[in-house]
Amino acid sequence: MPPQQPDPAPLGSPAPFDFSVDLAAHETLRRAHVMAALGPDWDPVEVLRGEEAAYGLLYSGLDEQQQRVYDDLVAAGVLPARGGGGGRAAA
After folding, report:
1. pTM (predicted TM-score)
2. What is the rounded end-to-end Cα distance, in angstroms, of the chain?
3. Residues with Cβ < 8 Å from 62, sequence gap 6 or more?
4. What is the full DSSP assignment across the chain?
5. What confidence score (pLDDT) does residue 9 get?
6. Residue pLDDT, tens place only, 31-66
7. Residue 81 · residue 64 · CB < 8 Å
8. Which residues contact 89 (CB under 8 A, 6 or more apart)?
9. In Å, what is the CA distance from 19 to each residue of 12, 55, 77?
10. Average per-residue pLDDT in the chain?
11. Percent of the chain with pLDDT over 70
């Protein structure tokens, strides 16, 4: 018995073709819109400083048990080590 052959494409159906979309122009436009929305006064360095300050406040004033948990999380690599050395949260 001969091996099964796939059925040929039905009459009138188009042949398969390669379909691709270049999104480079759309990505460029999207980035331009993001920058326009941020405005000319946007300062990325200042934003990063604010984020660092907020992170410092988040882990400030920990009691002894909380500090121990924080240190364990830093040692396990769950939280990044922060400035001040010793893996201690900001006071």
Report:
1. 0.46
2. 82
3. 70, 89
4. -PPP-PPPPPTTPPPP-------HHHHHHHHHHHHHHH-TT--HHHHHHHHHHHHHHHTSS--HHHHHHHHHHHHTTSS---TTSTTPPP-
5. 62
6. 999 999 999 999 999 999 999 999 889 889 999 999
7. no
8. 59, 60, 62, 67, 70, 82
9. 20, 46, 43
10. 83
11. 79
Residue owning tokens 């999104």:
23
Q: What amino acid is encoded at 58 in this protein?
A: L
Rounded distance between C-alpha atoms, residue 72 and residue 64, angstroms: 12
Residue type, 38: L
With tokens 């691709």, the residue in question is: 20
